[in-house]
Specification:
This protein is mainly β and 153 residues long. The protein is built from one helix and eight strands. InterPro entries: PPC_dom. This is PPC domain-containing protein. It comes from Bifidobacterium samirii.
Length: 153
C-alpha cells in the first residue's frame, strides 16, 4: 500500500495482491484516525461479501473470484471497545458470470483482494466515534460523542 495526506484527507493506493480492509485499517492505525468516511474504486481479483440474515442474527458469505470491478466502496471507520480501528463498509462489484453475462454482487465487505489497483479516499472526522452494543438492533452501533437523541417512532 501507498498513501499520501492532502489537506487532511488520506489518499490510499492498494497494490495488487493486497487486502483492501487490511490496508484501510493499517492506515487508520498509523494516522490515528478515530472516525472517517471512506469511498473507493478499483480492479479486484477476489471479493467476499456478507449478507445479514436478521432471523439468524448472522451473516452469510458470498465469494467471487476473477476480474472484478469495484464500482463503489463506501463506509466508515470508528473505534471498537479495545480502541482499534473498526471498518464498516459495503461495496458493489461488476463481473462476468460463467455464461459471460454482466453480473453484480453487493453487500457488507468481509475481504477484498486487489487484482490491479485500488484507490481509496479516507476523510477523517476530527473526533473519535466509538461502538456500543444495541440490544434492540442486536449489533454494535455508533457511540456518538455530543449526541442528541430524538425518538421518531
Amino acid at each position: 500500500m501507498e498513501y499520501s495526506t492532502i489537506d487532511g484527507t488520506h489518499y490510499l493506493r492498494v497494490a495488487k495482491g493486497e487486502s483492501v480492509p487490511q490496508a484501510i485499517i493499517e492506515l487508520c492505525r498509523r494516522e490515528h484516525v478515530g472516525a472517517a468516511q471512506i469511498t473507493g474504486i478499483g480492479a479486484c481479483s477476489e471479493a467476499t461479501i456478507s449478507t445479514w440474515i436478521a432471523e439468524r442474527a448472522d451473516f452469510t458469505d458470498h465469494t467471487v473470484n476473477g476480474t472484478l470491478e469495484m464500482v463503489a466502496l463506501t463506509g466508515n471507520i470508528t473505534r471498537n471497545a479495545e480502541g482499534e480501528p473498526h471498518l464498516h463498509a459495503h461495496a458493489v462489484f461488476s463481473y462476468l458470470d460463467a455464461a459471460g453475462r454482466p453480473a453484480l454482487i453487493a453487500g457488507h465487505v468481509k475481504d477484498i483482494t486487489i487484482g490491479y489497483t485500488g484507490e481509496i479516499v479516507i476523510r477523517p472526522a476530527g473526533e473519535t466515534i466509538g461502538r456500543k452494543w444495541d440490544d434492540a438492533a442486536g449489533i454494535d452501533v455508533w457511540d456518538l460523542p455530543h449526541s442528541t437523541t430524538v425518538d421518531l417512532r
